[in-house]
Design a protein that fits this description.
Elements lengths: L3 E3 L3 E6 L5 E7 L9 H11 L16 E5 L1 E2 L2 E2 L4 E6 L21 H8 L16 H17 L3 E9 L2 E2 L10 H8 L8 H16 L6 E8 L13 H9 L12
Antiparallel strand pairs: 1-2, 2-3, 3-7, 4-7, 5-6, 8-9, 8-10
Helix pairs in contact: 1-3
Length: 253
């Protein structure tokens, strides 16, 4: 199973949804970069489960434990390794997945590939839980990019047919990205956000779920990044984004 990505900076993800811990190893970070751990924790809190009615009920602290790679708050050249403990696990709830896989999930294909030895608890290594260490790596890289004048932000573009106002592709600025990222429900139009949450609540009451789209923008990004044909910027982003189990489509503007 391929669980690492990157060239100059590589990220390796490990763990399962119900294993003792999950984590990441980031290699290739330049030495001497001061990591703001409070910003990292705030970024992880945006993803953490159990914080809102429209999120999964599983509640985890998602407190990163740094094992190596930092000295006095700065990168020291060694691989940056971290752990996030798993606590709110109800493994017995997933035992039936050995015989009755969930539609649209990796349960069936994992069983065929690994001959029944895969960890079925919570989806194992195929769980969205593994996005937590991805977010940790992303939080570190976001800080490094911001130091270089590159700002990245995203908002919920639509949920269940309710659309948010789009980013202005010409006038969007770092302040716009930071403003929407600071909201507990990341939308530009708060009225649209309220309507989205109503749709989510109704689907939950009906024991159903709804899909959505995310719009992301980068400001200050230099031209000329990436290589022709098979290693362009879009190719690299697609490889990373499709590592998130819920992503089923991707479009570049």
């Amino acid at each position: 199973m391929s669980s690492h990505i990157g060239k100059n900076i590589t990220v390796s993800i490990f763990g399962q949804s119900h294993s003792q811990a999950i984590g990441a190893v980031i290699d290739g970070l330049p030495a001497g970069f001061a990591v703001d751990m409070e910003k990292v924790r705030a970024f992880l809190a945006r993803r953490a489960p159990g914080r809102a009615a429209y999120a999964t009920a599983r509640r985890e602290a998602d407190e990163p434990i740094i094992l190596s790679g930092l000295a006095d708050g700065k990168t020291c050249g060694a691989p940056l390794a971290m752990l996030i403990g798993n606590g709110d696990t109800r493994s017995k709830d997933y035992e039936k997945l050995r015989d009755v896989p969930r539609p649209g999930h990796a349960d069936f294909t994992a069983n065929l590939r690994y001959g029944g030895f895969q960890d079925v608890r919570g989806g194992g290594h195929f769980s969205g839980r593994l996005t937590a260490p991805l977010c940790f790596a992303g939080a570190i890289c976001l800080q490094m990019l911001e130091q270089r004048g590159v700002f990245i932000g995203a908002h919920i573009a639509s949920v269940a047919g309710v659309a948010d106002a789009p980013f202005d592709p010409v006038r969007v600025c770092p302040a716009d990205l930071q403003a929407v990222s600071a909201k507990p429900f990341a939308v530009i139009d708060d009225a649209a956000g309220a309507a989205m949450q109503e749709k989510i609540a109704q689907a939950k009451a009906d024991l159903d779920s709804v899909g959505g789209t995310i719009e992301c923008a980068a400001v200050g990004f230099p031209a000329g990044i990436g290589d022709p044909m098979f290693d362009g910027l879009e190719n690299r982003l697609a490889a990373a984004l499709f590592g998130i189990p819920a992503v089923k489509g991707l479009e570049f503007g």
